[in-house]
Design brief:
With 76 residues, the chain is an alpha+beta fold. The protein contains two helices and four strands. The protein is globular and about 35 Å long.
């Protein structure tokens, strides 16, 4: 059985460095077009993509690499 998970990114803590995007093996994170209160483009979790290859496994690599501690990981 494959692991299932999802992440929550606090857009107000994220400064859009992109380390989580590089760390995500599934390509489930991208930079948002919206600005946060600090004027950064934060990362966002791609939840509703049709591709099954983008499904988060809850591996937590994104959270481990985040210098702003802006990512929470949840596993089913």
């Amino acid at each position: 059985m494959k692991k299932k998970g999802f992440i929550r990114i606090n857009s107000e803590l994220c400064k859009g460095c992109g380390l989580c995007i590089t760390a995500c093996l599934k390509g489930s994170i991208r930079i948002s077009n919206k600005l946060n209160m600090k004027g950064y483009h934060p990362a966002e979790y791609i939840e509703n993509e049709k591709s099954k290859n983008r499904k988060c496994t809850g591996c937590a690599l994104c959270a481990i690499t985040c210098p702003d501690i802006a990512i929470e990981v949840f596993r089913d």
